[in-house]
Amino acid sequence: MTSIEQIATLATFGAVWAVLSVGHNLADHVIGQTDQQAEGKAAPSAAEVANGVSPRRGWGACLGHVAQYHLVMAMMLALVWAVLPLQMSWTGLAAGLALSAVTHAFFDRRWPVRWLLQHIGSKGFAELKAAGMNGMYLTDQALHQTALLASALLITLL
After folding, report:
1. Quick check: 113 and 140 in contact, CB under 8 A?
2. Under a CB-based contact definition with an 8 Å cutoff, are residues 29 and 19 in contact?
3. Do residues 9 and 156 lie in contact, with contact meaning Cβ atoms separated by under 8 Å?
4. Which of 14, 62, 103, 128 has the fewest CB atoms within 10 Å of its CB?
C-alpha cells in the first residue's frame, strides 16, 4: 500500500519537474538571456582557438546567461512552493539548481554537444541546419531537459 509520504514525494517531483520544464523554456528562450549572451556564450570556435584566440572567451556571456536563467528558475520554484504544499528542502533546491547551472554552462559552450554528436556517429546531425531543423540546438535542448530531470530528483529527494 502507498503511504501519504510516497504520494507527497511523487506530487512534489511532478510539480518540480513541471516548473523546471516550463521555467527552462521561459528562461532559455524569452527572459533568461540577452542577444549578446546568446551570440557569445559558445565563443570561440575551434578555428579561432587555432588562430590564437583565448579558449576562455565567451565564458562571461555564458555565465551571465546561466545566472539570469537560474534566477528565473529559482523565482518560479519559489512561487510554486509558496502556493503548493511541496516537500522540498533548501539543501535539495541548492543541489538541484547547482547541478542545473553546471550542466547548463557546460552544454551552452557548444563544443561538448558537438563532441558528443561526433562521437556517437551523428556528425551529420551536428551540422544539420535546414528545413527548420538544427541538430546542435535540438541536442542542446535534449541534454538540458535530461539534466533538469536529474535536478528535479535532487530537489525532491534531498
Report:
1. yes
2. no
3. yes
4. 14
Measured between alpha carbons, how far is residue 122 from residues 38, 110, 135, 140 in Å?
24, 15, 9, 14
Determine the Cα angle at 132 with ends 49 and 39, to 5°. 35
CA distance 71 to 113: 24
The model carries a pTM of 0.89
pLDDT in tens, the chain (158 residues): 679 989 999 999 999 999 999 999 999 999 999 999 999 999 888 788 888 888 889 999 999 999 999 999 999 999 999 999 999 999 999 999 999 999 999 999 999 999 999 999 999 999 988 877 899 999 999 999 999 999 999 999 99
3-class DSSP assignment, residue 64: helix
Q: What is residue 55's DSSP assignment?
A: T
What string of DSSP letters covers 66-133?
HHHHHHHHHHHHHHHHHHS-----HHHHHHHHHHHHHHHHHHHTSHHHHHHHHHTT-HHHHH-EETTE
Cell of 123: 556528425
